[in-house]
What does this fold into?
Amino acid sequence: MANTTSAKKATRKIARRTIINKSRRTQMRGAVRSVEDAIKKGDRDAALKAMANAEPQLMRAAQRNIIHKNNASRKVSRLVHQIAKLAAK
It folds into this structure.
């Protein structure tokens, strides 16, 4: 348990940030899931539209230290590669 005034304030700030970060992480995961669903269905146009929404969300999450920047880049790269494979079919 925090004893000093500054430590108590820090715990309050952390609690607020945690709620915000959970919300952002949930939105990001939902955006990625919509891309993956479109890829599974084989719908390239829907996948591209969903990717246009998911990529900025992933990069914003990386910028705000919700996920690591390499993790975001890897996810974007893999999703784009899967969408590219749809065009070849």
Remarks:
- Helices lie at 5-41, 44-63, 69-88.
